[in-house]
Design brief:
The chain is an alpha/beta fold and 175 residues long. It has two domains: 93 residues, Transcription Regulator spoIIAA (2-Layer Sandwich), CATH 3.30.750; 55 residues, no CATH class. Helix content is 26%, strand content 14%. The protein is built from six helices and six strands; from the N terminus they run E-H-H-H-E-H-E-H-E-H-E-E. The strands form two sheets. It has a three-stranded parallel β-sheet with strand order 1-2-3. Strand 5 and strand 6 form a beta hairpin. The longest helix is centred in the middle third of the chain and has 13 residues.
Length: 175
């Protein structure tokens, strides 16, 4: 079955990545925001942009540039409100610009409710199974977590009930 051009729009599209925090500051607080993106939509349209790819703008402790998501249903107030995001989408669509948001479902922060519940749940529980925990060998000898942490920049090590555990994302101290 042949796909329509509408289905294949992305094949020849100009997609412009926007990191909201640094793109355009509309209120002078030193950080970009939705209003700042809206203010530049005509410029982006004139460049021939077909879609804006927005990096995460969810509430986050910003240990990993916003990719450490604390709430997938919210908007970090530094960038604006959900209403302002809806306005951005509507105004972009008025110009024929699509919006792609970076959902990053595998990047919760250690502040996300799922993660805090997982830390306090038993191994094998549904809460715990959302994450991969690897218990190291302990302080008596070099742990697997230590070895991995040396190899991978974005791995943190936190404490879990007195044992060392590998966290697959940046950890803001011990849990």
């Amino acid at each position: 079955m042949a796909e329509s051009n509408a289905d294949n729009w992305w094949r020849n599209a100009v997609v412009y990545e926007v990191y909201p925090r640094s793109f355009n500051d509309s209120n002078g607080d030193g950080e970009g925001d939705f209003r700042g993106i809206i203010d530049r939509l005509d410029y982006l349209h004139d460049l021939g942009v077909d879609a804006l790819w927005l990096t995460p703008f969810y509430p986050s402790p910003l240990a990993d540039g916003g990719y450490d998501v604390a709430d997938y249903c919210g908007v970090d107030p530094r960038f604006g409100t959900l209403r302002q995001f809806a306005d951005l989408v509507a105004r972009a669509h008025d110009r024929g610009i699509r919006i792609i948001i970076d959902i990053v479902p595998n990047h919760t922060s250690d502040k996300h409710p799922w993660f805090t519940k997982a830390l306090h749940s038993a191994p094998g529980s549904k809460e715990r199974n959302r994450y991969i925990f690897h218990v190291g060998a302990g302080r008596a000898r070099r742990t697997t977590a230590d070895e991995l942490a040396e190899q991978f920049r974005w791995i943190g090590v936190g404490a879990l009930r007195g044992r060392m555990v590998l966290l697959a994302f940046v950890c803001q101290g011990t849990a």
